[in-house]
Amino acid sequence: MDRFKKTNKASILGILGNIFLLIIKSLIGFITNSRAMIADAFNSAGDIISSVFTYIGNKIASVPSDEDHNLGHGKAEYIYSMLISIAMILMSLFVFRDSFNSIFNNSTLNFSIWLVVVCIITIIVKFSLFIYTNNIYKKYNNLLIKANSKDHRNDCFITLGTLISSIFTLYHIYFIDGIIGSLISIWMIITSIKIFKESYDVLMDKSISIETKKKVYEIIEKHSEIKKVIHFNSTPVGYKYQISFTIYVNGNMSTFESHKIADNLEKEINKNLDEIYLTIIHVNPIETNNS
To answer: Cβ-count burial of 175 within 10 angstroms (0-12 exposed, 13-18 middle, 19+ buried)?
Structure first.
């Protein structure tokens, strides 16, 4: 499927891009003693882990259903998204501790034009990756790619902060570097928690969105033969949902007629709503005088 191929390509580009950025950020960060740049380098290390997890999670999620996994392996996408968020949180806490300490230890850094160059290169690379992954996410609604896309976007702002802190050193204002390093880590933590929650919701079988449920009912209401709908349930299946509900139709209908209504409705819902993986409808008769 294009969805899985595009995700694989995005994860590989992310790995290569972040390895390149990790090398140049680490080199310049340690040479200049820039806490913000070192924090940015750790962020790139976390991004490499994220891209690797994206690749592995996508590989597993793309495996079709089998005897042991009747609904496929789609939830691997969310398991690995959760692992990405946990790795990012741990990395962020380490960076926050180091940056926070540097504020009170009067740590200084040596300005270098290479700090500016690395920041500009990082912004260009990350913004390009953001545009690419964001377009894929909009098309395929993949949480793994969404996590990567947000990370690339955040990195643009984070590196801009690093650039600002390096400029302040020209005026011998060094504490800004530690403050921005701390802010970088806090931003990473907030982003990671959001990804964790979104993954957790799916793994805990969170119900379909109110908007999608409303769309399903709008389709049902087009069928005047259906008198009542009860027992609406939904279950996440990878990045889509399986839904089931019971409809009541005129009890004088033949079994063939009533089930044909259900079959046609299932096909219509599956065809018109990309969020729906499978629709299961149970049919019950209703007495004519109650219709």
So the answer is: middle
